[in-house]
Design a protein that fits this description.
disordered C terminus, Ribosomal Protein S5, domain 2, 24 helices, 5-stranded mixed beta sheet, 39% helix, binds ligand TSJ, Rossmann fold, 9-stranded mixed beta sheet, 671 residues, alpha+beta, single chain
């Protein structure tokens, strides 16, 4: 799929090349029809939506400068789309040199220049009206209605075909008054040219999503979206969606953190303007228990996925302000490891929005702000405003919270470093810390080796005795491994069970995971069929899923299936094992003569040789491979696991952990 944002940027860069207005004015709209890609990136579905955003940008500019507070997008039944605002209305008076109305110049000249290029806007989201003529050039027809000075003005433009020649954006008469009104504002309706675009069908969700985003970025402005193709069942009328955020990016941050565990309900908000540079920055920050930071940034309402100088400046200014707060309040004790800026951002969700002139993009996808001057601007503005913020008595609590986050993250980071060094050097001092009770196998063939992660020391003991030590390793787990999804990366390493597993598998985890270093072909979880066992299975799978995902994707993780019953025929000593109640019934029907029945309450009750026969021996055992092929399902599973309801999680695992039922419930015969 195309990347809409990237495409936006490319085409804006392309439009910029035509800043030499003399050339552009001469060329008119024909250049746009000739090479639409130069102006809107592609003629695919993203290019189509680009037309809409060019128009909406103009209304957003009017709103950003305080002249409009409502922007209404309407998808019409005939495939055209309308954008209406309640701003001042586009200039209708005639340009002295071109002898045309401001409206007509804006819609028919690639770069209107002079009075109508919207240069008087203090802050701007878009392209200063350059896009309007591009939209006109790529439309079947376009209509504009301006309400201004109690009058309604109207003009229509059309694509005209004469013989083999096609011209578009041709005015059908001058801009003319068609009535009177008390309203103010501008409305533009256009129908994209189906001979230009691969598709002329607007996407409802794309529009909804972007309007919502714009509403977050333009606080206090109401964005309405009416889709005439979506009819309400209640009243038979088209549905209108409303996006309005009084708090702007404060509401944005709250929305991002809605389903997370917040460390404080407080959202830190600062903003600053440099009118001389036409530069503005807004920042909203809230902390959750999510590891690391999530910084979402925009330049002139365009998302900067790759960050850039504004993000760098923000981090610098933020760190300075926090350090100053810490120093002024004497918070750092001698024993504390001084936290770094990164440490103070653990759990931070932030939205940064800057508005500026002449933005420049770089990076792989051209979504990284490159302007070097912005780093210093944002740094000093954020530092200054946050210093004032933290100096207020009522904000001391949040400052202290950030300090505590910094100290504990810094401590964890130091411990993680120690652990990593220990793994690398593998010296004997730390050996015990890393290997726990792992009994490794003697063979070195990772393609056939197996590791059994066994619940409990006693079952672990039987497994160690019963296994084939050339290719089977055993790792007994003492306690329950911790609930990994609640833990930061570094906290994982403080848990001995997890540490041992990471070390035993050899793959490392998270970003540094490398399956090439996997020492075992099969990782087999052996836990009892009871409540505790279920819990352990769930936690281990959660851990693998969240931190060593490829292990599951590539099918290395298995559940061992120990039997529930043992039936011994008295006369012959023949042992039969049942893995569920139905099997037991069948076996009991078949056995002749006297028999004894044992129900295993746990793996620990099994002798080592029985454990070998029923659970370890590849020739007779039953394994269930854990596969999560459906990504959607997997995501649902993780969010299920993210929740605190252990019951639901267990039920889910029972029902969904892709059991290979055919293999799982075969009766096994022991000897
Ligand atoms: F892009 C566009 F031209 F198609 C378009 C522009 C579409 C829509 C839906 C709205 C607009 C638009 C333009 N809304 N508001 C304005 N405002 C002006 O162009 C404007 C109005 C008054 C003055 C002034 O100095 O009095 C200056 C400007 C730039």
């Amino acid at each position: 799929m195309e990347n809409n944002k990237t495409e936006n940027l490319k085409s804006k860069a392309a439009v910029k090349k035509y800043d030499a207005s003399d050339i552009v004015v001469l060329e008119g709209l024909e250049a746009v029809r000739l090479r639409p890609g130069m102006y809107i990136g592609t003629t695919g579905v993203n290019g189509l939506h680009h037309l809409l955003w060019e128009i909406v940008d103009n209304s957003v500019d009017e709103a950003l400068n305080g002249y409009a507070d409502t922007i209404h997008v309407t998808l019409n039944a005939d495939g055209s789309i309308s954008v209406e605002d309640n701003g001042r209305g586009m200039p209708v008076d005639k340009h002295p040199k071109y002898k045309k109305s401001g409206v007509e110049l804006i819609f028919t000249q690639l770069h209107a220049g002079g009075k109508f290029d919207n240069k008087e806007y203090e802050f701007s989201g878009g392209l200063h009206g350059v896009g309007a003529s591009v939209v006109n050039a790529l439309s079947d027809w376009l209509e504009v209605e301006v309400c201004r000075d109690k009058k309604v003005y109207f003009q229509r433009y059309e694509k005209v075909v004469t013989g083999r020649k096609v011209k578009s954006g041709i005015p059908q008469g001058d801009l003319a008054q068609i009535g009177t009104t008390k309203k103010r504002g501008t409305k533009t309706t256009f129908k994209p040219d189906a001979t230009v675009f691969e598709t002329v069908e607007f996407n409802h969700d794309t529009i909804s999503k972007r309007l919502k985003e714009l509403a977050y970025l333009t606080k206090g402005v109401t964005f309405l979206f009416t889709d005439n193709n979506v009819i309400s069942e209640e009243d038979g009328l088209p549905v209108t969606e409303t996006y309005f955020y009084k708090g702007g990016i404060i509401d944005f941050v709250k929305n991002l953190n809605e389903d997370r565990t917040r460390r404080s309900e407080k959202v830190i908000y600062v903003e600053a303007k440099d009118t001389a540079q036409k530069f503005q920055v807004q920042v909203a920050i809230q902390y959750t228990d999510k590891p690391e930071d999530e910084i979402i940034s925009y330049v002139n309402n365009i998302p900067t996925h790759e960050g850039g100088t504004h993000e760098t400046g923000f981090k610098l200014g933020f760190t300075k302000a926090v350090n100053e707060f810490v120093k002024r309040n004497n918070l750092l004790k001698a024993k504390d490891v001084p936290p770094s800026g990164d440490d103070y951002r653990d759990g931070m969700t932030a939205v940064i929005s800057v508005r500026m002139q002449n933005m420049q993009f770089e990076g792989q996808t051209k979504t990284k702000l490159g302007n070097p001057e912005v780093k210093g601007w944002v740094d000093s503005m954020v530092y200054e405003q946050l210093s004032l913020y933290f100096a207020e008595k009522k904000n001391k609590d949040i400052g202290t919270m950030i300090f505590k986050i910094g100290v504990s993250t810094s401590k964890m980071r130091t411990e993680e470093k120690k652990f990593k060094e220990a793994i690398r050097s593998k010296n004997s001092m730390t050996g015990q810390m890393l290997t726990g009770k792992l009994s490794s196998c003697s063979g070195r063939n990772a393609a056939i080796n197996e590791i059994f992660i066994v619940e409990g020391d006693s079952a672990g003991g039987s497994a160690k005795k019963g296994r084939n030590r050339t290719f089977q390793a055993v790792l007994p787990l003492r306690g329950k491994p911790l609930n990994t999804e609640k833990c930061t990366r570094t906290a994982l390493l403080q848990n001995e069970e997890i540490r041992t597993i990471i070390y035993a598998l050899g793959t490392d985890f998270d970003n540094s995971f490398n399956i090439k270093n996997l020492k075992y072909d099969k990782i087999i979880i052996l836990a009892d069929a009871d409540h505790d066992g279920e819990h352990i299975r769930c936690l281990l799978l959660t851990f693998f899923y969240m931190h060593m995902r490829p292990l599951i994707d590539e099918g290395h993780v298995y559940l061992g299936m120990p039997p529930l019953y043992k039936v011994e025929q008295k006369k012959t000593g023949l042992l039969r094992y049942a893995y569920n109640d139905a099997e037991l019934e069948n076996i009991l029907k078949e056995v002749k003569g006297q028999y004894s029945l044992q129900r295993y309450k746990g793996l620990g009750e099994m002798n080592f040789d029985q454990l070998w026969d029923t659970t370890l021996n590849p020739k007779t055992r039953t394994l269930t491979r854990v596969t999560i092929d459906d990504v959607k399902n997997a995501n649902a599973m993780v969010s299920l696991w993210m929740g605190s309801d252990a019951e639901i999680r267990q039920t889910y695992i029972n029902e969904n952990a892709n059991f290979n039922k055919e293999d799982s419930f075969k009766t096994k015969f022991g000897g």
